[in-house]
Fold:
Amino acid sequence: MKIAFFDFDGTLTRHDSFIGFAKFCVGKCAYYKALLKSLPALIQWKLGLKSNSEAKQELFSHLYRGLDYARFKESGYKYAKFIERDLRKDVFEILNHHKQSGHKIVIVSASIGDWIRKWALDNGVDHVIATEVEIDEVGKISGNFRTRNCHGAEKVSRILELFPNFEEFETWGYGDSRGDEAMLSKVSHSKMV
Structure:
């Protein structure tokens, strides 16, 4: 089997979809209010006192806690058209080349799977490995992640869950940041874009 793994934000897209989706889903005003509430955590992250995952979890909670999951998921479905406009054409051509060569295509992203999946389905992506949200018993977003934030070494852990015999395959990896280095160090062919 041959598999190409792509980071999403900054690799396939030009911008961070976390911010773009938040403004799309809850509106700019609510986004900036949540950002302000999360500012202490974000500053602690920048100072190395909190992890990327802890700061992201806090911002996510301020944005979406109590939101109806059906609405969130529907917004993710609609957001696919915005992703299409933000694509890096050069990297998307690489994805299409792998697809035409019969390779499996896997997106591995710290972003939330709900706003990547529709775009991925429309573009022939085989799997989306991403951060997933926790839903409470009445269908609302709890504000927590159901999975660990899919960043850094967690990307490798999640790939190995899906492909336990990963090292037997010929693999490619594409990323754009330090959060992708662990994944890129494990593939047969890697490229920072």
Summary: Strands lie at 2-6, 104-112, 127-131, 133-135, 141-145, 170-175, 189-192. The mean pLDDT is 96.
